[in-house]
Amino acid sequence: MSIWGKLSGAAASIGGPIGALLSRAGHLAMDRTGSEHDKQVAFTVGVIALGAKMAKADGAVTRDEIEAFKEVFKVPPGEEHNVGRLFNLAKQDVAGFELYARQLNRLFHDDRQLLTDVMDGLFHIAVADGRLHPSEERFLAEVAKEFGFTDQDFLRIKGRHFKCEMYDPYNILHTSPKASDAELRVQYHKLVAENHPDMLIARGVPAEFVDIATKKLAAINTAYEEIRASRRAAG
C-alpha cells in the first residue's frame, strides 16, 4: 500500500506540528483505522512538510525541485489535491522544519533506515538543480541532527548525492582504508544486499522509497570501484 494512502482526519491524535499542519489543510479523507494508521498519516504529512521546506530552503521553490519531489515521493492518482494542499502550506516558509523532523524522529526513532531513506529523498530534492546551496546543506544538516545522525552519518548520506572535498568512498561503504580487500568485499556485498529493492520491500519500507535504493546502490558501486581502482594503482 502507498504511504500516501488516504490522508485522514487524524490531526487530534497525531498532535504536534504535523497534526497542526493537517488541521490547517482542512478535512481530507475521513477514514480512520486506528493508531497505526495515524502513524502512517503522520509519516506522510511529515515527509511532505520536510520536502516542501527543503525546496524552499534556498529562497525559492523551482520547477526542478517540484519535479524531484514527485520523483521521490510519488503521489498516486486521486491524492494530488490533498498532497498539493499540504505541500503549498508547508512551502510558505522554512520556519519550523526542525519541529517536523523532531516529531518524525520520536515516532520512528527505532527505524534508522527509514529515516535514512527520508534524508536521501531530501538530498535528491536539494541537488535537483545540479548544486547544493549552503542554505540547503544547513537545512539538511539540522534535519540529520534532529534525526540523531552523527556528522559522519551525514557526510555518508551527502556523499551518495553530492561529491565535495570531504567525499570519502570508504565512508560511503562504512569502512576504513585499513580494511583488507577481503573485508572490503564482504562489506560491499553486505551493503548491496541491505539496499536491494527486494530486501527493502521485505522490511516493510514504503514503496515510494524503494526507488531510492537504485540511487544508493549506484553510489555504493561507484565507491567500491573507486577504492579498487585506487588499490590497483597503488600496486
Question: Mean pLDDT across all residues, rounded?
Answer: 79
Q: Tell the overall outline.
A: globular
Order of helices and strands: HHHHHHHHHHHHHH
Main beta sheet strand tally, sense and closure: none
Give the helix tally: 14
Extended strand count: 0
**Beta-strand content:** under 5%
| Helix fraction bin | 55-70%
Cα-atom radius of gyration: 19 Å
Query: Runs with pLDDT <50, length 5+?
Result: 1-12, 27-34
In terms of structural class, how would the helical and strand content be classed? Answer: mainly alpha
End-to-end separation in angstroms reads: 51 Å
**Number of separate domains:** 2
Question: What does it look like?
Answer:
This protein is mainly alpha-helical. The chain has 2 domains: 1-163, no CATH class; 168-235, Orthogonal Bundle (Helix Hairpins), CATH 1.10.287. 67% of the residues lie in helices and 0% in strands. The protein has 14 helices and no strands. It has helices at 11-14, 16-24, 35-56, 63-72, 80-90, 97-108, 112-126, 134-146, 151-159, 169-172, 181-194, 197-203, 207-210, 212-234. Helix 3 (35-56) packs parallel to helix 7. The longest helix has 23 residues, at 212-234. Residues 1-12 and 27-34 have low confidence and may be disordered.
Tell me briefly what this model is.
The chain has two domains: 1-163, no CATH class; 168-235, Helix Hairpins (Orthogonal Bundle). Helices cover 67% and strands 0% of the residues. The protein has helices at 11-14, 16-24, 35-56, 63-72, 80-90, 97-108, 112-126, 134-146, 151-159, 169-172, 181-194, 197-203, 207-210, 212-234.
